Amino acid sequence: MKLDFSIPRRVRLVYFGRIGLGILRNYITETNTTIYENPRIRLNVWVALRMLLSGERSEFSYYRAFLRWTKPHVVITMEDNNVTFFATKVIMPTCKTMAIQNGLRKSLSHSADSSFLADLQNVALRGYGADVIATLGGLGDQFFEESFGRNQPQLVRVGNIMNNALELERVDSPAESRRVIFISKFPNRGTVGIDNDWYSKTLIYSGSVGFTADQYFKVDAIVARICAEIAAQNSMTFLVLGKRPAWQTGEFEYYEKHLDGLPWTFLPSHSQSSSYEVIRPTDIIINVDSTIGYELFARGLRVGFITARMSVADHPEIREFEFGHPLVTTSHGDYWTNHATDEEVRRVVDFVTSVSDEKWASATQTNRELLFHYDPRNTQLCRLFTDLGVANTGPRLWSKQLIPKN
Fold this sequence. Notes:
Elements: E1 2-4, E2 13-16, H1 21-24, E3 33-36, E4 42-44, H2 45-53, H3 59-70, E5 74-77, H4 88-91, E6 96-100, E7 108-109, H5 116-124, E8 132-135, H6 138-148, E9 154-157, H7 161-165, E10 179-183, H8 196-200, E11 202-206, E12 209-212, H9 213-233, E13 237-241, H10 250-258, E14 265-267, H11 274-277, E15 284-287, H12 291-298, E16 302-306, H13 309-312, E17 332-333, E18 336-337, H14 342-354, H15 357-371, H16 379-387
Parallel strand pairs: 1-4, 2-3, 2-5, 5-6, 6-8, 8-9, 10-13, 10-15, 13-14, 15-16, 16-18
Antiparallel strand pairs: 7-11, 11-12, 17-18
């Protein structure tokens, strides 16, 4: 924890948390701003003193003291999974608040006793909320509707800011036109990688059901290997699109073990935009249940979904990880399946690979529009900023100079 001795000042705009700050500042041009940081990371001594004088010690009371110092007109966050942000409307009812969804939300937790969904439902009963939540699309709307019940914020579909702001690599050579890319969801294991905890310790819960990392991520290895075999049999390049930077060697080692004997290339993450930078419009993209898979699907790219995480982990009764759940109710379709059998994976990959452009557009249109939003240049997001009285650049695509660093 770092100590901050600066005296807080009044501002027009507060950024709640540093997550996504570089992204937001590519559009927001307000200069009278400050950042609220979790006191466990950075503690302002003046805010802490005001909290102690109130006779309370909690993050809620610290945040309340912070707001009473800064008196903002607007609070914006990309930490939409932080319950404390939603307390702003309780502390300062006249302050305008906007949360921007930064990932698909599910009832995952590190404890069997709580989850973000349950926590949000509980605090919603106490008046927590927001003026606007900018969602990723229909799946985001559904989550927050379930979370807030009758006390609904305004839900506006904006899609993913980064996805909306970046153009994909162009392909000029037909010889480079076909690659099979598997999107990895390997967890953040730091320098530890795969150790004894991977196999023996319950690391994540869905409701009351606990999983080791080996159980939860087993499906990724299965699907990646089948896709690598398909690519080799059809003389296509196979790549694993990494979620982690190269220094976290566990991700590479995991796929190296499970893809033994097959040709493959690993693409580690090296920036916030690297996953988008490597994608070509002609790629065959296969994923289990990643957010970026839905993002690229919304663009109209050829994306197949093998949403079999829970069936492979022997808990098929947990359905929230299935494709488009709960907005899509069928267990399989032309380009998705909830079963990671060799036959099913090959069926999906074959459709995604071989169907004509016209057939692909027609077969996917309904679900693309239903599940996830794509808004090139972020026109809707900038409109929301303007409605909140927040100065901004207006809609635009990003040059390389605008891409935020990790």
